[in-house]
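Teaching assistant here, posting this on the class forum so everyone can see the example we discussed in section. The complex has two components, and the goal was to see what a joint structure prediction looks like when all of them are supplied at once.
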Amino acid sequence: MMPKLLTGWWHAFTGAGDHSITVPPMDGPLHPNTRLEEASRLAEVELPDNLCVHAGQILFTSGETLLRLPPDGGPASEIARHAAPVTALASDGRRLAVALADGRIVVRDGDAAAPELRLPAAAGAACITAMLFDGDRLLVANGSAQNRMADWKRDLMEKRVSGSLWRLGPDGGAERLAAGLAFPYGLVRRGDGTIICSESWRHRLVAIGERGALRPLVSDLPAYPSRLTPSRKGGYWLTAFAPRTQMVEFMLREKRARLEMIATIEPDYWMAPRHASGRSFREPLQGGGIKQLGILKPWAPTQSYGLVIRLDEAMQPVESFHSRADGTIHGVTSCVEFGLRLYAASKGANCVVALDPPFLMEAAI
Amino acid sequence: MTPVIEFRGVSKSYRGVPAVSDISLTIRGGEVLAVLGENGAGKSTLTKMMAGVVEPTAGEILLDGKPVRLPNPAVALDLGIAMVFQETSLVPSMTVGQNLFLGDEKAFNRLRGVSIASQQFLQSLNFNVDPTALVSTLGVAKKQMVEIARAVRKNVRLIIFDEPTASLTPEEKQHFFALVQRLKESGIAIVFISHALEEALMLADRIMVMRDGEHIVDGPASEFDRDRIIRAMVGRTMTDQLYDQKSTQRPRGRKVLTVENLSLGKIVRNTSFSIYSGQITGMFGLIGSGRTETAKIIAGVIKRNFFHGGTIRLEGRPVRYRVPRAAVNDGIVYVTEDRKVEGFFEQLSITDNLRMGHLASKWSAPWVVKPSEILPIAEHWRKALHIRAINGDTHVVELSGGNQQKVVIAKGLLQKPKLVIFDEPTRGVDVGAIAEIHALIKQLADDGLAVIVISSYLPEILNLSDRILVFRQGRVVEEFLPDQADEETIMYASVH
């Protein structure tokens, strides 16, 4: 105990270990490019999210509305409107689960609506971030026990580690699979049946093992990971909704400054990750982010970014699609593969974009 | 015009083994002669005889048509012959200015006066070196500049340069070429040894090629091209083998090393990058761009900033080495750019040098390595790396540059590393050995090791690397895949 405490103090003094204000580089497979920025813009809707393929259609949400996206463009059409904003969608091809911000989960089986599900009270605040069908049961990731989905920024700046993973039966029975997750945001099942979860605040992907044991597969990502989705051609897609920056890492280590910021400043202007930046002069700005002659350098430090990563079978990054500091397709929270294209929802640009990854083309040939 | 210096049938043998046989040549004032040849061809011995470092065992040396004896460098210097050595002969504990005026001191010296005079002299040569800096604090390139400046200051008639540009940046090389031009115009004869054949072709009036201690060919530079020189040097054409055959890019393996916001004073500034197994990562940058210092921090040779110096993760685990041994134990090996100072013990044998490497590894008992244990290991590496010597008892100082470099590499490789950092692996190495060292580096990557190659020579970077990181002002500023990059693009990134 004592050595650990001493080590902690030493690290706090020298700025090492957990107290190092460092972020990993975007290089190798994460080398910046403009491929996401150059993607075709399809539907322009406010805060699109939760892309999924259901019954041969691409669905996504915007606030309380469930929408259908024509794969080749054209305006999105409304399918349903709910009483509360939709926070997650899941489909197994036949059934569609819709999680709402008020904590309800509506499961539709064809046209028939099944009874509504809810997370047990032990899960805390309803912050359903991702769902996954597991036979007749449903895996549900609850991002935080204290904050709702809309308060994700507060959850990060309060350094909460209260996310959990639940398995809900059709009868409403709930079993907790894992706890102590730092904002689980994405779920996917690997070929061997292992459940993989993205932990946003710990910037990693973990395999959920027996009795909630967590096994990191990818650690120290340079961005905050969000949704995971499988690729038809092997591997997975991972979206990351904001980059890690030294300034935010610094705030996360400075407790008093952070608490004062939370107490006195509106969340929109916090020194924190965001889905879009540069929209207000009141946003905090780092020196390198100042526009020169009206131009923002692509490598300027930014609190928002657009990033979609292709992972291999072992969940290791293989390639990536970026929208950089001078771009707009930021805050990508979900993506889905349909046909030979990859669709990504950008909350920063309020649109859904379509990418044509050569990988899918090659695989098709 | 009377030749400044003339050799007539000059030979030099060491213990009966001929190093130079029956050489005859003349050098005139205002002429630039490039002496080329593989390591061990006898170039250094020839020039050392000119500079009075060694005396010939047979033949005659004539200066201004009169036979002379050059028993030591002081006599040669008095007669107007100076040599700029590959390994600098400066006094590390003295300032640059003091080194420039060494031997010419007045009875009462003011350090300030020496510094001012040195500053003016260095500026006249376009050399950006602080005259008040201690030589021990200078990098290899700057030491080389001081060495050149010292020779120029002596008002000599013949200057011999041994690999003068090996450690200079492209810009510094341009300064050097301009300097040679000025010296030439003022009637000074220049002899230079170089492995950079393009430089010889560009700079020299006359080219002389040696092989196995013999004078193979000699003629105006305009009659030579790269292939002809190489053919004369090694008896075969090697251009294609060296830099024109790019192997297919290796796939990226697992991430072995992550460097996050690494900082060391003003030399390494908040730099970040990753290194993957099964690949060769080339690091290019001008001298002073922080690439060597970054590599040395990774390998525990120097320490990063104590406060907020950044993070280095080896296979995901944060590491901070205070001595290289800990890094070696974790599988990180650094093959130094300055092999003569940091790479080996020159008065020890090949086997004893490898024994030192073995002692540093965790695979050996911490304090004792039995000869019976090390002999087979040393023999294995000597054969595996084709270190050309009579046997393992040969002193490293007696080996050619290429073979010395192989000893340094073998010392590192017997640590069973997972990350090998080669800093200027082929500096001062002959063409034949370059091909062998390149093949070895490629083989290491093919075997799944993570390999970093730091080089100032762009064709080498382009030829070897599966991925190229460009350093500028202490940080990685650009990353290229070899098919995206050419020399111009990389150089642009390293300068702008």
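For the discussion questions: The first helix of chain B runs from residue 43 to 50. The interface with chain A takes residues 252, 254-255, 258-261, 272-274, 276, 306-311, 313, 316, 318, 320, 467, 469, 476, 479 of chain B (CB under 8 Å). Think about how each of these relates to the inputs above.
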